[in-house]
Amino acid sequence: MTGIRPTGDWDGRTFAHEGFAFRTDRELIDRVVPFAAEGLSRGEPVLVVAGERVRTLLADEMGADVARLATFSPAETWWRGGHGTLRAYDRDLRQLRASVPTWRLVAEPVWLARDDGRKWSRFEAVANRCYEDMPYYSLCLHDAERLPAVVLEAVARTHPLTWGGDTPVPTAAYEDPQQFVRSVQPEWRERPRSATVTSVVTPKEVRRGVLDRLVDGWGARADDAVLATHELVTNALRVSASAEVACWFEADGLIVEVSDQGPGLPDETLGYVPPRNDQEGGRGMWLAWSLADDVAVASNGTGTRIRLYFSH
Protein backbone atom coordinates (compact mmCIF):
# COMPACT_ATOMS: atom_id res chain seq x y z
CA MET A 1 0.00 0.00 0.00
CA THR A 2 2.58 2.48 -1.16
CA GLY A 3 1.67 6.16 -1.16
CA ILE A 4 -0.43 5.91 1.99
CA ARG A 5 0.16 8.80 4.41
CA PRO A 6 -1.67 7.72 7.60
CA THR A 7 -1.46 11.12 9.30
CA GLY A 8 -0.92 13.40 6.32
CA ASP A 9 0.91 16.60 7.22
CA TRP A 10 0.42 16.25 10.96
CA ASP A 11 3.65 17.35 12.67
CA GLY A 12 2.96 15.86 16.12
CA ARG A 13 2.69 19.25 17.80
CA THR A 14 -1.06 19.92 17.86
CA PHE A 15 -4.33 18.03 18.02
CA ALA A 16 -5.53 16.20 14.90
CA HIS A 17 -9.06 14.78 15.04
CA GLU A 18 -10.30 12.40 12.36
CA GLY A 19 -13.65 10.69 12.06
CA PHE A 20 -13.35 7.45 10.09
CA ALA A 21 -16.56 5.63 9.09
CA PHE A 22 -16.03 2.09 7.84
CA ARG A 23 -18.38 -0.45 6.28
CA THR A 24 -16.16 -3.51 5.84
CA ASP A 25 -13.46 -5.28 7.81
CA ARG A 26 -11.00 -4.54 5.02
CA GLU A 27 -11.67 -0.81 5.16
CA LEU A 28 -11.03 -0.85 8.90
CA ILE A 29 -7.79 -2.81 8.66
CA ASP A 30 -6.43 -0.76 5.76
CA ARG A 31 -6.93 2.43 7.74
CA VAL A 32 -5.92 1.45 11.27
CA VAL A 33 -2.99 -0.92 10.75
CA PRO A 34 -0.81 1.53 8.74
CA PHE A 35 -1.72 4.26 11.24
CA ALA A 36 -0.56 2.13 14.17
CA ALA A 37 2.51 0.82 12.33
CA GLU A 38 3.66 4.33 11.48
CA GLY A 39 3.37 5.39 15.10
CA LEU A 40 5.30 2.37 16.35
CA SER A 41 8.04 3.00 13.78
CA ARG A 42 8.40 6.55 15.06
CA GLY A 43 8.51 5.55 18.71
CA GLU A 44 5.17 7.18 19.49
CA PRO A 45 2.88 5.51 22.03
CA VAL A 46 -0.12 4.05 20.19
CA LEU A 47 -3.29 3.57 22.22
CA VAL A 48 -6.23 1.51 21.01
CA VAL A 49 -9.59 1.61 22.81
CA ALA A 50 -12.22 -0.20 20.75
CA GLY A 51 -15.09 -2.63 20.73
CA GLU A 52 -14.62 -6.39 20.80
CA ARG A 53 -15.09 -6.93 17.07
CA VAL A 54 -12.57 -4.25 16.12
CA ARG A 55 -10.02 -5.48 18.65
CA THR A 56 -10.33 -9.03 17.32
CA LEU A 57 -9.75 -7.88 13.74
CA LEU A 58 -6.72 -5.80 14.71
CA ALA A 59 -5.23 -8.53 16.86
CA ASP A 60 -5.49 -11.02 13.99
CA GLU A 61 -3.95 -8.58 11.52
CA MET A 62 -1.19 -7.12 13.70
CA GLY A 63 -0.08 -10.31 15.39
CA ALA A 64 2.84 -9.79 17.76
CA ASP A 65 2.78 -6.02 17.20
CA VAL A 66 -0.30 -5.81 19.43
CA ALA A 67 2.02 -6.30 22.39
CA ARG A 68 3.87 -3.12 21.37
CA LEU A 69 0.75 -0.97 21.75
CA ALA A 70 0.72 1.27 24.81
CA THR A 71 -2.94 0.40 25.35
CA PHE A 72 -5.22 -2.23 23.83
CA SER A 73 -8.40 -2.12 25.87
CA PRO A 74 -12.17 -2.59 25.51
CA ALA A 75 -14.23 0.51 24.84
CA GLU A 76 -17.29 -1.17 26.33
CA THR A 77 -16.05 -0.40 29.86
CA TRP A 78 -15.33 3.27 29.22
CA TRP A 79 -18.79 4.80 29.14
CA ARG A 80 -19.60 6.70 32.35
CA GLY A 81 -21.97 9.23 30.89
CA GLY A 82 -20.71 12.17 28.86
CA HIS A 83 -19.12 14.19 31.65
CA GLY A 84 -17.75 11.18 33.51
CA THR A 85 -16.20 9.73 30.36
CA LEU A 86 -14.59 13.00 29.33
CA ARG A 87 -13.30 13.58 32.86
CA ALA A 88 -11.49 10.21 32.78
CA TYR A 89 -10.29 10.84 29.23
CA ASP A 90 -8.98 14.27 30.16
CA ARG A 91 -7.09 12.86 33.15
CA ASP A 92 -5.36 10.28 30.98
CA LEU A 93 -4.48 12.82 28.30
CA ARG A 94 -2.81 15.15 30.77
CA GLN A 95 -0.83 12.28 32.27
CA LEU A 96 0.39 11.36 28.79
CA ARG A 97 1.37 14.91 28.00
CA ALA A 98 3.48 15.05 31.14
CA SER A 99 5.38 11.91 30.13
CA VAL A 100 5.72 11.80 26.31
CA PRO A 101 6.12 14.45 23.59
CA THR A 102 3.39 13.07 21.30
CA TRP A 103 1.16 10.03 20.86
CA ARG A 104 -1.67 8.68 18.75
CA LEU A 105 -5.02 7.22 19.68
CA VAL A 106 -7.40 4.82 17.93
CA ALA A 107 -10.78 5.11 19.63
CA GLU A 108 -14.16 3.55 18.90
CA PRO A 109 -16.92 5.23 20.96
CA VAL A 110 -19.23 2.20 20.86
CA TRP A 111 -21.71 3.95 23.17
CA LEU A 112 -22.85 6.18 20.26
CA ALA A 113 -25.13 3.29 19.31
CA ARG A 114 -27.01 3.76 22.61
CA ASP A 115 -29.70 6.38 23.13
CA ASP A 116 -27.98 7.62 26.28
CA GLY A 117 -24.63 7.81 24.48
CA ARG A 118 -25.52 10.04 21.57
CA LYS A 119 -24.77 13.20 23.52
CA TRP A 120 -21.12 12.19 23.21
CA SER A 121 -21.10 14.04 19.88
CA ARG A 122 -21.19 17.30 21.82
CA PHE A 123 -18.02 16.30 23.68
CA GLU A 124 -16.39 15.31 20.38
CA ALA A 125 -17.18 18.80 19.12
CA VAL A 126 -15.74 20.72 22.06
CA ALA A 127 -12.63 18.52 22.10
CA ASN A 128 -11.53 20.39 18.99
CA ARG A 129 -11.38 23.54 21.07
CA CYS A 130 -10.24 22.38 24.49
CA TYR A 131 -7.53 20.02 23.20
CA GLU A 132 -6.29 22.05 20.24
CA ASP A 133 -2.83 22.36 21.80
CA MET A 134 -2.56 18.66 22.72
CA PRO A 135 0.16 16.91 20.64
CA TYR A 136 -1.71 13.81 19.52
CA TYR A 137 -3.66 12.33 16.62
CA SER A 138 -7.08 10.90 17.45
CA LEU A 139 -8.44 8.44 14.89
CA CYS A 140 -12.10 7.89 15.83
CA LEU A 141 -13.71 4.76 14.40
CA HIS A 142 -17.41 4.56 13.52
CA ASP A 143 -19.15 1.48 12.18
CA ALA A 144 -21.35 2.80 9.36
CA GLU A 145 -23.25 -0.49 9.17
CA ARG A 146 -24.29 -0.29 12.82
CA LEU A 147 -24.70 3.39 13.64
CA PRO A 148 -27.82 5.40 12.65
CA ALA A 149 -27.49 7.99 9.88
CA VAL A 150 -28.07 10.84 12.35
CA VAL A 151 -25.06 9.73 14.39
CA LEU A 152 -22.84 9.47 11.30
CA GLU A 153 -23.97 12.96 10.28
CA ALA A 154 -22.88 14.25 13.70
CA VAL A 155 -19.51 12.51 13.25
CA ALA A 156 -18.90 14.51 10.08
CA ARG A 157 -19.91 17.75 11.78
CA THR A 158 -17.65 17.24 14.80
CA HIS A 159 -14.43 15.92 13.21
CA PRO A 160 -12.34 18.37 11.17
CA LEU A 161 -10.60 15.52 9.32
CA THR A 162 -11.83 12.52 7.38
CA TRP A 163 -10.05 9.82 5.40
CA GLY A 164 -9.47 10.64 1.76
CA GLY A 165 -8.29 7.21 0.65
CA ASP A 166 -4.56 7.77 0.95
CA THR A 167 -4.28 10.71 3.37
CA PRO A 168 -6.52 12.65 5.79
CA VAL A 169 -8.46 15.54 4.23
CA PRO A 170 -10.64 18.34 5.65
CA THR A 171 -14.24 17.35 6.36
CA ALA A 172 -16.61 19.50 4.31
CA ALA A 173 -19.43 19.25 6.88
CA TYR A 174 -17.30 20.22 9.91
CA GLU A 175 -18.82 22.96 12.11
CA ASP A 176 -17.56 25.31 14.79
CA PRO A 177 -18.03 23.54 18.17
CA GLN A 178 -20.34 26.20 19.59
CA GLN A 179 -22.50 26.16 16.48
CA PHE A 180 -22.80 22.38 16.65
CA VAL A 181 -23.65 22.29 20.36
CA ARG A 182 -26.38 24.88 19.91
CA SER A 183 -27.87 22.95 17.00
CA VAL A 184 -28.35 19.75 19.02
CA GLN A 185 -29.51 21.18 22.33
CA PRO A 186 -33.22 20.94 23.26
CA GLU A 187 -35.48 23.12 21.15
CA TRP A 188 -35.96 26.54 22.69
CA ARG A 189 -39.62 27.33 23.35
CA GLU A 190 -41.20 30.16 25.27
CA ARG A 191 -41.66 29.18 28.89
CA PRO A 192 -45.23 28.44 29.96
CA ARG A 193 -47.38 30.81 31.97
CA SER A 194 -47.48 28.22 34.73
CA ALA A 195 -43.76 28.73 35.42
CA THR A 196 -42.78 30.00 38.85
CA VAL A 197 -40.48 33.01 38.39
CA THR A 198 -38.31 34.41 41.16
CA SER A 199 -35.82 37.28 41.12
CA VAL A 200 -32.78 36.58 43.31
CA VAL A 201 -29.84 38.72 44.39
CA THR A 202 -27.95 36.09 46.40
CA PRO A 203 -27.24 32.42 45.60
CA LYS A 204 -28.71 31.26 48.92
CA GLU A 205 -32.19 32.22 47.70
CA VAL A 206 -32.03 29.44 45.11
CA ARG A 207 -32.78 26.53 47.42
CA ARG A 208 -36.16 27.81 48.48
CA GLY A 209 -37.18 28.78 44.95
CA VAL A 210 -36.33 25.40 43.40
CA LEU A 211 -37.41 23.08 46.20
CA ASP A 212 -40.83 24.74 46.34
CA ARG A 213 -41.49 23.25 42.90
CA LEU A 214 -40.46 19.69 43.77
CA VAL A 215 -42.81 17.21 45.38
CA ASP A 216 -42.05 14.01 47.26
CA GLY A 217 -40.23 11.37 45.29
CA TRP A 218 -37.53 13.48 43.69
CA GLY A 219 -34.92 12.43 46.26
CA ALA A 220 -31.33 13.02 45.11
CA ARG A 221 -32.54 14.68 41.90
CA ALA A 222 -33.85 17.52 44.03
CA ASP A 223 -30.37 18.04 45.42
CA ASP A 224 -28.93 17.93 41.89
CA ALA A 225 -31.37 20.59 40.72
CA VAL A 226 -30.65 22.87 43.66
CA LEU A 227 -26.86 22.58 43.38
CA ALA A 228 -26.83 23.05 39.60
CA THR A 229 -29.08 26.10 39.84
CA HIS A 230 -26.97 27.52 42.67
CA GLU A 231 -23.86 27.31 40.47
CA LEU A 232 -25.53 29.10 37.57
CA VAL A 233 -26.97 31.83 39.81
CA THR A 234 -23.54 32.37 41.35
CA ASN A 235 -22.11 32.86 37.85
CA ALA A 236 -24.97 35.14 36.82
CA LEU A 237 -24.54 37.41 39.84
CA ARG A 238 -20.91 38.00 38.90
CA VAL A 239 -22.07 39.87 35.79
CA SER A 240 -25.54 41.06 36.72
CA ALA A 241 -27.10 42.79 39.74
CA SER A 242 -29.80 40.13 39.93
CA ALA A 243 -30.75 36.84 38.34
CA GLU A 244 -34.09 35.36 37.48
CA VAL A 245 -34.93 31.74 38.24
CA ALA A 246 -37.91 30.14 36.53
CA CYS A 247 -39.14 26.58 37.19
CA TRP A 248 -41.80 24.48 35.49
CA PHE A 249 -42.68 20.88 34.74
CA GLU A 250 -42.79 19.43 31.25
CA ALA A 251 -43.79 15.79 30.70
CA ASP A 252 -42.07 13.88 33.54
CA GLY A 253 -39.28 16.38 34.07
CA LEU A 254 -38.38 19.65 35.70
CA ILE A 255 -36.95 22.58 33.75
CA VAL A 256 -35.05 25.32 35.55
CA GLU A 257 -34.14 28.48 33.68
CA VAL A 258 -31.54 30.93 35.02
CA SER A 259 -31.30 34.27 33.24
CA ASP A 260 -29.28 37.43 33.69
CA GLN A 261 -28.68 40.78 31.99
CA GLY A 262 -24.93 40.41 31.70
CA PRO A 263 -22.72 40.69 28.59
CA GLY A 264 -23.32 37.12 27.43
CA LEU A 265 -21.25 33.95 27.77
CA PRO A 266 -17.75 34.26 26.31
CA ASP A 267 -17.67 30.53 25.56
CA GLU A 268 -20.78 28.35 25.73
CA THR A 269 -18.77 25.16 25.41
CA LEU A 270 -17.21 25.50 28.88
CA GLY A 271 -19.95 23.34 30.37
CA TYR A 272 -18.57 20.40 28.39
CA VAL A 273 -14.88 21.01 29.18
CA PRO A 274 -13.30 19.54 32.34
CA PRO A 275 -11.93 22.46 34.39
CA ARG A 276 -8.20 22.37 35.02
CA ASN A 277 -6.80 22.78 38.52
CA ASP A 278 -5.43 26.24 37.69
CA GLN A 279 -8.58 27.40 35.90
CA GLU A 280 -10.46 30.31 37.45
CA GLY A 281 -13.74 30.15 35.53
CA GLY A 282 -15.95 27.47 34.04
CA ARG A 283 -16.22 25.17 37.06
CA GLY A 284 -19.80 26.17 37.84
CA MET A 285 -20.94 25.50 34.29
CA TRP A 286 -19.19 22.12 34.19
CA LEU A 287 -20.82 21.10 37.48
CA ALA A 288 -24.28 22.30 36.44
CA TRP A 289 -24.05 20.60 33.04
CA SER A 290 -22.90 17.33 34.63
CA LEU A 291 -25.76 17.30 37.16
CA ALA A 292 -28.51 18.03 34.63
CA ASP A 293 -29.81 15.55 32.06
CA ASP A 294 -29.61 18.19 29.34
CA VAL A 295 -28.92 21.88 28.85
CA ALA A 296 -29.97 24.61 26.44
CA VAL A 297 -28.36 28.05 26.13
CA ALA A 298 -29.52 31.35 24.63
CA SER A 299 -26.89 34.05 25.01
CA ASN A 300 -26.04 37.38 23.38
CA GLY A 301 -24.61 40.75 24.31
CA THR A 302 -27.61 41.74 26.43
CA GLY A 303 -27.98 38.66 28.58
CA THR A 304 -27.93 34.91 28.99
CA ARG A 305 -30.62 32.30 29.59
CA ILE A 306 -29.66 28.75 30.51
CA ARG A 307 -32.14 25.92 30.87
CA LEU A 308 -31.39 22.81 32.89
CA TYR A 309 -33.46 19.67 32.31
CA PHE A 310 -33.96 17.09 35.07
CA SER A 311 -35.85 13.84 34.67
CA HIS A 312 -37.80 12.36 37.56
UniProtKB/TrEMBL annotation:
<keyword id="KW-0418">Kinase</keyword>
<dbReference type="Pfam" id="PF13581">
    <property type="entry name" value="HATPase_c_2"/>
</dbReference>
<dbReference type="Pfam" id="PF14417">
    <property type="entry name" value="MEDS"/>
</dbReference>
<dbReference type="InterPro" id="IPR025847">
    <property type="entry name" value="MEDS_domain"/>
</dbReference>
<feature type="domain" description="MEDS">
    <location>
        <begin position="17"/>
        <end position="160"/>
    </location>
</feature>
<dbReference type="InterPro" id="IPR047718">
    <property type="entry name" value="RsbA-like_anti_sig"/>
</dbReference>
<keyword id="KW-0723">Serine/threonine-protein kinase</keyword>
<dbReference type="InterPro" id="IPR036890">
    <property type="entry name" value="HATPase_C_sf"/>
</dbReference>
<protein>
    <submittedName>
        <fullName>MEDS domain-containing protein</fullName>
    </submittedName>
</protein>
<dbReference type="InterPro" id="IPR003594">
    <property type="entry name" value="HATPase_dom"/>
</dbReference>
<keyword id="KW-0808">Transferase</keyword>
<dbReference type="InterPro" id="IPR050267">
    <property type="entry name" value="Anti-sigma-factor_SerPK"/>
</dbReference>
<feature type="domain" description="Histidine kinase/HSP90-like ATPase">
    <location>
        <begin position="220"/>
        <end position="309"/>
    </location>
</feature>
